[in-house]
Amino acid sequence: MNENVLGIIAGVLTSISMIPQLIKVIKEKNVDDISLVMLLVLISGLSLWVWYGFMKDELPIIVSNAFAVVVNISLLVCYLVYKKS
């Protein structure tokens, strides 16, 4: 298998992995089981992958991780909106 195809498949799968969680949170408006620390660490790590992708000029790394950052920031916003004090 071509390494670019493998990278794109891996990027797509990891990028969409949090979408079911985001949909569930939006539908239920419940974030009690979401870890804020996990979200912050994940967004930080994904952001560093985007930066790395720019440094290496690797579009699959940039696009897949940038999409994942957007999904996880959306989840973070939901966390902040729906979190019960």
TrEMBL record:
UniProt entry keywords in alphabetical sequence: Membrane, Transmembrane, Transmembrane helix
Gene3D superfamilies in alphabetical order: 1.20.1280.290
GO cellular component: membrane
InterPro entries noted in UniProt: SemiSWEET, SWEET_rpt
Pfam family, one: MtN3_slv
Transmembrane segment boundaries: 6-23, 35-55, 61-82
Example GO molecular function: sugar transmembrane transporter activity
Tree of life domain: Bacteria
Keyword Transmembrane helix annotated: yes
Cleaved signal peptide residues: none
Name the UniProt record assigns to this protein: MtN3 and saliva related transmembrane protein
The organism of origin for this protein: Chryseobacterium vrystaatense
Organism placement in taxonomy: Bacteria, Pseudomonadati, Bacteroidota, Flavobacteriia, Flavobacteriales
